[in-house]
Amino acid sequence: MFQLLRRAHGLCMPSSYLHLSRLVDRCLLSKSPTLARIFHAQLVKVGFIRNTFWGNRCLQLYFKSGSVIDAFQLFDDFPDKNTISWNVCLKGLFENGCLSHALDVFDEMPERDVVSWNTMISGSAFCGYPEYAIRLFLEMQACVIQPTDFTFSILASLVSCTRHGEQIHGNVICSGVSQFSLVVCNSLMDMYRRLGVYDYALSVFLTVEDRDTISWNSLILCCSEAGDKELALDQFFLMREVGNQPDEYTVSTVVSICSDMRDLSKGKQAIALCIKMGFLSNTIVSGAAVDMFSKCSRLEDSVKLFMYLEGWNSALCNSLVASYSWHGFGEDALRLFIHSMRQSIRPDKFTISSILSSMNVVMLDHGAQVHSLVIKLGFESDTAVATSLMEMYFKTGLVDSAMGVFATTDGKDLIFWNTVIMGLARNSRATESLAIFQQLLKDRYLKPDRVTFMGILVACCYAGFVNEGLQIFSSMKKLYGVVAGNEHYACIVELLCRAGMIKEAKDIADKMPFEPNSHILEPILCASLDLGDTRLAEMVAERMLGSQPKSSFPYLVLIKLYEMTWRWENSVRIRYAMNKHKLNCAQGSSKIGIKSSVYSFEAGQLQIHGGQDTCSILELLSWDSDDQEIH
């Protein structure tokens, strides 16, 4: 009888369920609003629309396809909504960025379970409201809702200070449910790593019994970020010894650590392991390998590896563009950039920043074209790209263009402010640099750091603002908690030396809390040369050679000073010492742009554009000149 009824309705129930399930899978993959409506029509046709399970599935499809209005209409027509229906609606609204509607739905919910609260917490965080997400967790506790592993993992990703992190950790322990959860422990480790509390991260790691690859990855990264690269590599070796297999993220981290250590030998071993495990095809791993060779001064190997790899993408091209830029090969970086665009590889913000950093003064036309591309791609509002644009313009002396970028950029971060202050300082715009510094001080969310004070002291040094420089230098620690380093002492010493205050400069160098380096002593040595003070020059030069015996600068100053005072024997003795230690003078270089090419000229080298033809013309001109003198 039941079979006859099913045939009478033209419907075989099991096959209809199978058909609907397949249609759901197709809709989820395509995220097509049209397919979602077809599925809705099928439910109405077979009489399943009043079924809560299938209604929830249809609601999910509408939200996945972005049809929020259709989803709301279906939700309002639901005859029997359950908690799952409300949760699906809540999650869908957050996924489509409808925060206010999600809050309304949450307030209207007749019953909230832990999934509802988790959805609200994760959704608020996703929409950029981490403080509200933490407040929701407190309300959840007040409603006596037991948090889950997912709750704590979300909260751990939101914490921005150690005190809150410790409170979340305390909640984990007091819950008695999740303290041994691997997911929660990994989240706590990552939280403490982000906060820089590496000891706490290690203690969490030690409490985990069944550690997985994510646990070891967090430990390796903690050791690396704490500054102990060797210990990080030791943990990687221990990870393999205990039987945990590394993944792509592990090996990319290890290759990056070798890059930071400039350890080519270990870096090669890590890359060999990548090849053995089949990870080199991963663009993150291959990009890290390209970067490693570059930082180990093996740019040619970076290029070879790049050419060997197949399936270039934006991330991989970025690695080689950055490598070219880092080594000063701006023209090669630009060629690769153009080639990648011809291969339909769309540049991202990192690509643009790298190519702008590689620009030099003879590539102004290309820089302007890249700026136009930035506007075309809609990247001009990105702070990192805007910073690179300003840096390029400052480097090429186009201060007004740089300040135009400064005026039109919103959301300025500290790096952005530092770039403006330093750029103006290096282009002899000290007054403007000081004015920008005063603007920064009015920002209550940003505080000047070491780089900021370095830039403003450079400005004072170039302009000869002695009083302002001394005042800013003395306020670093007192008002802003920034401890002066070698670079700050070098600026203030040079400022005093330029003002003729040699004694004050030497007193500062003598009273430093650490041994001054050559950059601090060089201005004093140059000032002693201008004064003809042989005794001071000899004392400072001896001090410099004690820390940097391979430096030729102290020898050259002493030679010039001895020759100025007619002490030829001492001059010969210094020259003999230089030859004995095989010290060479630093050679200068310059570049010139001719059409689309850039040519480099270094001291002691003859590089001629045009080759043999140019030499022939020079010989002809020389012969013609000699002939005219005879007649």
From TrEMBL:
MF-aspect GO terms: RNA binding
Keywords, A to Z, come to: Repeat
Where does each PPR repeat begin and end? Answer: 82-112, 113-147, 212-246, 313-347
Q: What Pfam family is a match, any one?
A: PPR
GO biological process assignments: plant organ development; RNA modification
The keyword Nucleus belongs to this UniProt entry's keyword annotation: no
Identify the domain of life: Eukaryota
Q: What is this protein called?
A: Pentatricopeptide repeat-containing protein
Query: What is the phylogenetic placement of the source species in the record?
Result: Eukaryota, Viridiplantae, Streptophyta, Embryophyta, Tracheophyta
